[in-house]
Amino acid sequence: MGKRTETKSKRQIMKEQRIKRQKQQRVITLGIIIVAVIIVAGLLISPSILQANAPVGNIVQITPIDRPQVNFNATGDPNAPVHMINFSDFQCPFCGRFARETEPLIIENYVKTGKVYFEFIPYGPGGMAIGQESVDAALAAFCAGDQGKFWEYHDMLFANQTGENVGDFIPKRLDAFAQALGLNMDQFNTCLKQKKFEAKYQAGIEQGQKANIGGTPSFLINGKLIEGALPYEEFKKEIDAALSAAGVQP
């Protein structure tokens, strides 16, 4: 009897140890799952929290460029012999280079002289925006256009562009740009909140995709595709060729 009782006790002990190990394993597994969930949640939530708490930072002010016959995101005589469309992402560094260095010369020498009608269409490479900041910036520019200041906001965005998805165009800064331009902030914020120009933005994406626009910046000059932030002299050659083809003296 003593041996049976001793054997039974050992089995009971082994069973209890096994149950204890199983409980410990379940606790460890649950702990790993909880830590994983916290890490994933942190990755998803922390960017928005950081953006919400981030300071506005320095705002580069602009000197407004005189653009003739502004029509929302276009400028110049709509009956001009040359139509030039700029497909561009506000976060694209080469788009910024074109906007700051070359576009003002085209405005001065061709748009103001009635030879070129210039249009800007927000567009990411292949139709895919570089990031959410690109989309938000485009919609904000359209909302500024709703108050007649698309081009001023366009200039403000490119003047304050420092990189891609680095926080240049978080909501606080988009608001700060609007304030700097003297926009009606209630109207501006309502426009953004209601995504008033989302359909217009999507229409531009579709237009670019139908034209097989790939990288940014890209241009259509009377339908001819020109790619890249080329020097002004290269654009001058293309515009003058389009003018000559239209029977107009460059």
Task: Give a quick summary of the entry.
The chain is 56% helix and 10% strand.
Strand-helix topology:
Layout: H1 2-53, E1 74-75, E2 82-88, H2 93-111, E3 116-122, H3 132-145, H4 150-159, H5 171-180, H6 185-193, H7 198-210, E4 218-221, E5 224-227, H8 232-245
Parallel strand pairs: 2-3
Antiparallel strand pairs: 1-3, 2-4, 4-5
Q: Which features would summarize this protein structure in a list?
A:
250 residues, alpha+beta, Glutaredoxin, 5-stranded mixed sheet, 8 helices, disordered N terminus
What does this structure look like?
The chain is an alpha+beta fold and 250 residues long. The chain folds into 2 domains: 1-54; 74-245, Glutaredoxin. It is 56% helix and 10% strand. The protein has 8 helices and 5 strands, in the order H-E-E-H-E-H-H-H-H-H-E-E-H. The chain has helices at 2-53, 93-111, 132-145, 150-159, 171-180, 185-193, 198-210, 232-245, and strands at residues 74-75, 82-88, 116-122, 218-221, 224-227. Strands 1-3-2-4-5 form a 5-stranded mixed β-sheet. Strand 4 and strand 5 (224-227) form a beta hairpin. Helix 3 (132-145) runs antiparallel to helix 4 and helix 3 packs across helix 6 (185-193). The radius of gyration is 29 Å and the shape is elongated. The termini are far apart. Mean pLDDT is 89; it is low at 1-5 and 45-52.
